[in-house]
Design a protein that fits this description.
about 55% strand, four-stranded antiparallel beta sheet, about 120 residues, mainly beta
Length: about 120
């Protein structure tokens, strides 16, 4: 199983970005997918997750109401729609897939929120 993330960049506070993560060969080969992030000097934290075959989603408190995780079965892709971005959202964002409680990560994509 491979992950290809994209969509990071520089955005001003209050702006929006959409991260995408394409899984191959298929989304149905894993139980869950989502995004962790790691800011400079801080530990990696789970930001948002989704169960592939269900409707359960998870958000860390600091992003709930601003971030939305979406599935596109046809494209084997998940998206993280990030709105009303804040400087504290600046971090490397890592897409992951999870099966049997074990996470595997793709390469990170950098999100910088700055004026």
């Amino acid at each position: 199983v491979q992950l290809q993330a994209s969509g990071g960049g520089l955005v001003q506070p209050g702006g929006s970005l959409r991260l995408s993560c394409k899984i191959s060969p298929s989304m149905w080969s894993v139980t869950g997918m989502g995004w962790d992030r790691q800011a400079p000097g801080k530990q990696r934290e789970l930001v948002a997750g989704i169960i592939v075959a269900g409707s359960n989603t998870y958000y860390i408190d600091s992003v709930r109401g601003r971030f939305t995780i979406l599935r596109d079965y046809g494209e084997n892709t998940i998206h993280l729609q990030m709105d009303n971005l804040k400087s504290e959202d600046t971090a490397d964002y890592f897409c992951y897939h999870e099966t049997g409680g074990i996470k595997s990560y793709g390469q990170g994509t950098l999100v910088t929120v700055s004026s």
